[in-house]
Amino acid sequence: SARAGGLDASGYRPALSSTGFFARDGGAVLAPGAVEIALSLDAADDLLVVRDPRTGAVWPDGGRLVDARLTGTLGIAVGLFGRVELGAQMPVVLAQDGAVQRVRARGDLASTAAGDLRVGGKLRLLGSDALALSLAVDAAAPTGSADGFAGGSIAVTSRVVVGGRVGRFAFGVDVGYRARERAVVGDLAVDDEIVGGAATAVAVVRGRAWLVAEANAAVAAGGGGDTLRPVEVLAGVRWRPRGPWLVQAGVGAGVTEGYGAPRARGVIALRYAPVPRPAAGPRAPVRVVRRPTPPPAPKPPVDSDGDGVSDADDRCPLAPEDRDGFEDEDGCPDNDNDGDGIADRDDRCPLEREVVNGVDDTDGCPDEGLIELVEDRIVLPNRVLFDTDRARVKHSGKKVLRAIVELWRQHPEWDRMLVQGHTDERGDADYNLWLSQRRAERVVRELVKLGVDPAKLEAQGFGETKPVAHGDSEEALQKNRRVEFVIIERRPPDAPGTGESGSGDGAGDAPAGGPRPVSPPGLQGS
What we know:
By secondary structure, the chain is mainly beta. Helices cover about 10% and strands about 35% of the residues. The strands form three sheets. The chain has a twelve-stranded antiparallel beta barrel.
């Protein structure tokens, strides 16, 4: 006689990780070291029914073997090496009802039951998140209840997965083979199957909300009627609130009369899925210079006024030098109250320090420039090089880049510069990281066009990971959407090539300390 049991009537198996959709997988894998935990609930109606072979209608008396079912699935997934993803899931039937008298001599359908433990993995064979080819394998252990139609058979499923992402769109397509123990329920005999499906998602709010749709199908490897060809479609939303949580909800229905393809299904899932952060960029090399032990210091020369300039070189041996940054080696005091290197007799603003930026640098008055030099970092105050979601330098931004090149020429001791790209927090974190890298590389190409040696430049994008302003205001978002330039390597002052620049602009005479806005000569007001 036929044996009842060994069949999982659910037909729905959640994807192992957030790289998938509802039940279908994507081609990508989790980032190395990433760990996700998920709880999924699905409620389905008419999962396993007996139909009249003449009319196709469900038998009115005892025809619904599994009428309604609520299943909960707890899962965990982890990413390894950037190419491997492993996971495990344990489903439990939380509640169900149905009539089993047509296929079972005695007993009722258990209202709760354990399902088959599922362990699986995915290996990315080729490509990246933009387009990847992967191999997915999972195995089911017979921990489920055969009497509750919740499993109880050994099954191994192997699938080839192709998936990717283009702009706001993501997709996944897979096909494979499920080898399983034969299960018989009444006139229904389920054996090996060809399985597959397709899914797509579109971001309606970048990095926050997506619309998702998918189709799942199975066909008996040995052929058979519609009962052995379950097909189901699902559609819904995926939403990431602030923090590491991901919420997913959807509804669906079977489009054939196959087992496990319900009249209606509802799915909701909560997943702990932190967004991976980019690793820190390479640090600038630290150079250690070993200097020989200096010989004993000679006797100090005579310095009558004690200003540090020996009388032999002191034009004013009885009047101490005032060390204001202007002709400090002649030994004479200078009347330069603001210390900007311009004597008060020639200074139009004797109490305000001149800003050396290529704009009227000899009048002694501060001027606003296009860029600022703060220690080893060039910053762009209120200057936006790119439009939102674009990597092409704005026309106004090219003036800023010419200012940076002019400053580079004024500092021959600079040997290497890191161009950093940053974005605001709007949108998907992975997309922002990709966009910031493109922006940094675009700026490097523009600097090379303007004459900077490409061997002295390096580009690195940081996405939204290093904000300088917090909040959702347009002002804060604009401040975070920036490009910064960091001098990561200098040559010693006495090294070859660090003398006065050929432009003769006197950039080396600028006062040290504090922010210094800089722009090329003649750009002010253009």
